[in-house]
Structure formats: structure tokens, C-alpha cells
Amino acid sequence: MSAPSPRAPLPRSPRPIRVLVAKAGLDGHDRGAKVVAQALRDAGMEVVYTGLRQTPEMIVKAASEEDVDAIGISLLSGAHMTVFPRVLELLKEHGLSHVLLTGGGVIPEKDCEALRAAGVGMLFGPGTRTSDLIQYIQREVALRRAHSA
Amino acid sequence: MSTTPLPPDAEAILRGDRRALGKGLTCAEAMDDEALALLDALWGSTGRARRIGITGPPGVGKSTLASGVIRAHRALGRSVGVLAVDPSSPLTGGALLGDRHRMGAEAGDPNVFLRSFGSRGSTGGLSRAAPFALDLLDAAGFDVVLVETAGVGQTEIEVATSADSVAVVLSPESGDAVQAMKAGLIEIADVLCVNKADREGAEAMAEALEGMLDRAPPAPWRPPVVRTRALEDATALFEALEAHGTWLLEGGRIEERRRRGLRGRLRTLVHALLAERLLAGRDALLDARAGEAAGKRRSLLDAARSTVEEILR
Ligand SMILES: Nc1nc2c(ncn2[C@@H]2O[C@H](COP(=O)(O)OP(=O)(O)O)[C@@H](O)[C@H]2O)c(=O)[nH]1
Ligand SMILES: [Mg+2]
Prior knowledge:
Chain A is α/β, with parallel strands linked by helices. Chain A has five helices and five strands.
């Protein structure tokens, strides 16, 4: 192992942005989350889709194992003031503070502001164009990657 | 190998640090210098896990079966590391990695670690990166390491064969047994699994597979054909894989199989390293020979041969 290390056998191409898309809360359908997942995929991202009824613990376990750049949580049940802060807390605990936490649902403006102040990223209401979400993730992840490089 | 101290990330992976493993797998995926150093350091700790591959056409129920197989191992107290490979779009490089969704309940288990890879449309990349990812999961100490790939291309099939036991999954709507044979799926199977046995045509497919095996030249191991309804359970598949595992442990068969597998991987790596080493700084030579072939002063094959002669001179 003392010989000069051979160069990587493959050229290094930039890693696609990896995003975890999860649906939290107890409400039963994930059509919106699936539409978002497909749009992100079509924008060249690798999307790990985890499906319904994800707890903050499951979401952060997945983010760690999958080594994602961003987490998008879709949430309709009004549990946003518990779910987002808990995910944020667990991310810190797991050494994942660099991960962008974003999402969407019906969230009152003042709650959005409180969550943003706590370190959550932009939250998108129903009817948001997916292109806005895509641009936001691309910009935010580029910044965070540059920061940690 | 043991004289140099381990790099901190390698040590963390051996300690069972899951975050370090997550990052290490990202390196393995990129196959960059960091990954090579990590794999060098961890090589001595590989070879302890039982490695299982599950492959077959998209939609046959591989992930659903995998979750059943994982559950059966967990019931015996075994920890499980999973690598799930899904196709990437060759156009955008994007991928929708949905296996984690199908394995939802198991993925939440603290003694299960699941990582999804996109195939990234590269023929060579995945076949090198994925087996290294399995090495990392193995070194991290999981009792069982399971890889799921969609058996659509040669690469995905190759990845599955880096496991000790390979299950090929088919279903009544995945096309007939002859197609599976043409795709090279049947010859790599240690277990053949006809899933969606609740659907019409499953029994006929299983019988067609048995017929094929009857006509094949005798081999030391005849792959059993099992029928499953993955939405209910995967017990038949689990038991067949266990039986193959037991068979491998007799008379040093597993050592032989792994040696053969490593020889194949070694060959692929040497190939890549040689090509890179020999072609380094040879752009001008390649340009000149390509120009001659374009101008019809040499045939393309002649240009290639003379390029090799010149490089090796
Ligand atoms: N009818 C029936 N459907 C199944 C069975 N196993 C899986 N499925 C369904 O087949 C679809 C694809 O399953 P999945 O495990 O994702 O397949 P994969 O692409 O091979 O990993 C899902 O909708 C499953 O619910 C089965 O035994 N019977
Ligand atoms: Mg699958």
C-alpha cells in the first residue's frame, strides 16, 4: 500500500443532487408527493421516495443512510409545528446539519416564518409550480455543497 | 496491510457508525481516490457477511420479496445491509429510487441499513461501484448483505452475480421463460422464483422453467423453482436461499465461488487501470491515428493496432 495510489478508474462526474421525498403525518394519500418526486427526477435529481406515514425518526435515518443533499416533506395534517422542528433536531444530532430541509403543505405564513427562523428552508404551499421548487433546491444545494467542499 | 493505521472514516465504519457508512457509500458510488483508500483499508474486514442478490425484470416484485427475506433474517436476529439499485434516466441522469418505499417497514428497523443507488446509465460504473458498496456493508458488520438490481442490462446482472447466492425473480407478466433465458437471467440463478403466484400463468411459467432445467446439462447445483406471493410472504424464497447458502458452506464451495467472483472483479479493475495508465498523455497519438482513419489512409482496425504497437514500444 506504499506505492503511489492509482488514479480512480473512472472519471469523476458531478454527483446528481439527491433528495429524500417523504410524506409525514397520518393522512392517507401521497399523490402530491409523487408528482413532486417525478418532477425532481425529470430535473436530473436522484429522488429517494419513502412513501406515507414517515416519522421524523424514519426520515432522518433514511437521510443519513442515503446521504442526501435535501429533504422534502409533504404534510397536510397540520402537524408541521411538531414534525419540522423534530426533524431539524434529529438532523443536528446525527451530524446532518448540512442537509436542506424543505417541504410543502397548507402552512400559515406565521408558522412558515417561525420555522424558517428555526433553520427550516422555504416551505411551499399547494399550487406551487414544481419549477420553483426545483430552482430553489438546485440553488440551495449548490450553495451548501460549495460551503462544505 | 495491517501496519498502517486505519484512516478515521474506516475506523468509524468498523465501529458501526452509520453516518460514516452513509458517506463511505457515497465515495464508493463515485469510485474516487477517497473511496479507493477506504476500500484498501477495509478490505481485511470483508468476507464475513452472507451476500444475497435478487434480480429480475422491473415490476416482478423484487423489493416486496426482499422485504420478506429481510424480515425472515431479522426474525433470526441477523442484521441486514441492503443495496437497492434502480435505473437512472440516460437523458437527465435523474432517477426515482422507490425500493425504500416498498421496503418501508424494514427500512425503519435500526438493525437494517438501506442504501439506494441510481444506475446512472453507465455500463462500466455500476459494475465497479456496486460490488465495492457491498464490500463496505460487509465490512460494517452486517450479518446479511442483500443487493437488489433490475435485471435489464448486462451490468445489473453482473452486479447480482457478485453475491454468494442469486435469486432470479420472474412473474407471469414479465414475459415468458424463453425471454428470461435469452436475457441471460436463468444461467446466473441459484434460485428461480416465480412471484405473483396468485396470478394466472404463474404455474405454467414455473413448469416451463422446470422443463428448461430438465434439459440443461447436469450441474452440481440445480436451482430450485419456488413460487411466491410476495404480498403475503417470501418464506419459500428465503428457505431456498438458505438451502443454497448451506450447500455452499460444504466442502469449500463458497471459497471457490468467491475466488471466481473476485477474479472477475480483478480483471475488470486491471482492465480499467491499464487503459487509463496506457492512454495517459496519448491524446495526440489518438488524434493522429483517428485522422488517418478518417482520411482513409488506414483502416480503423489498423489504426487501433498501430496505436497499441506504439504505446507498448
Ligand atoms: N398480485 C401480486 N402483486 C405483487 C406481488 N408481489 C409484488 N406485487 C406488486 O407488484 C408491484 C411491483 O412490486 P415491486 O416489489 O416494487 O417490484 P420490483 O420492481 O421488482 O422491485 C407492486 O405493486 C407490488 O405490490 C404478488 O405476489 N402478487
Ligand atoms: Mg424494486
